[in-house]
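Let us work through a complete example step by step.
Step 1: write down the sequence.
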Amino acid sequence: MTASKTNAFYAQSGGVTSVINASACGVIETARRHPGRIGTVYAGRNGILGALTEDLIDTAAEPAEAIAALRFTPAGAFGSCRYKLKSLEKNRREYERLIEVFRAHGIGYFFYNGGGDSADTCFKISQLSESMGYPLSAIHVPKTIDNDLPLTDCCPGFGSVAKYIAVSTLEASFDVRSMAATSTKVFVLEVMGRHAGWIAAAGGLVADHGIPVVLLFPEIDFDRERFLARVDALVKAHGYCTVVVSEGCHHPDGSFLAEQGVRDAFGHAQLGGAAPVVAQMVKEALGHKFHWAVADYLQRAARHIASRTDVEQAYAVGRRAVELALDGENAVMPTIERTADAPYAWRIGTAPLAQVANTERKMPRDFITEDGYGITEAARRYLRPLIEGEDYPAYQGGLPVYATLRNTPVPRRLAEFTPG
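Step 2: predict the structure and record it as tokens.
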């Protein structure tokens, strides 16, 4: 590795989105525009695990057309993982292994594309590389459908999920409305969002179309009697109603409606099942016929209905990450700064990872109506621009055309390593 030209490492982390590959496209295309300073962009197969096990992918083997196609392709083109590195004190060997792999492959730029846990990992790696005297520019590329990263107006991945949920809530509500006289009167849609109700809030946009909707947020303690009274009142007034419940909706004691009693790789409670719990509650207490659905992977994989705003922002943070690295920045994250609501305008800023890591942004209380079951006009002003615009992929034979990369492996130079 020379001072004038270094290789780069890019990895995708955590739950993927419909636009995370647009960020990858932004990183790789921008790096290719600087051949005199950036050599090869290596990607980690299955996220940070690819670095730990030295399972690297040579993105230089991909033609320009394939990289450009990532902008229209959902999920993680190089594979992602739910693997959280422990603290430096508890597992220094893994961090030192990362530096060992970077040194072996002449890597001086580290781009980690993920959410809050990834920001923390990126920050720790930047600290260790500095303490070890290894020249590394560590830049976090923001991504999370939960929209809970601090110091940024929104998070790439969220706008498209919000669009999917708003559209799905609207269409399902039209269905229920047409059948309510003799059939289903309450439809319950469960959406993602462990501690922050941004995604559930998007369902509230259907109220602009006259849809009677009840939103259940993680920020508001669930009150069974108040909830049932609200649903019953809406059904009596309109003949039906729709409920959008966040998976993180919880009782006053903090227990989740959907908690299954198991934990994921990050130590988070494994959730899933708030919708049937709420629907059954309505059936038993009010006797209304119901249907429920869990958006699950559909909401974050739906590239066919992605928000153009979201796609553009996802690409922009990937591009800016490379520019920041070339400018000598370290331990920072490109952010999205809103400069106007109407017409919507935004620019890319920068935030230090020391202020991003281990910090979670929830819905502001003034975005939620006083009764806790809807969104305010302030929330609507915030949400509307993020779901605007379409950026359809090409279609062939009735299906979207998505890219599958070759993912050519890079020869290993080090001894085997077992993470953990």
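Step 3: interpret the result. The CA atoms of residues 62 and 368 lie 46 Å apart.
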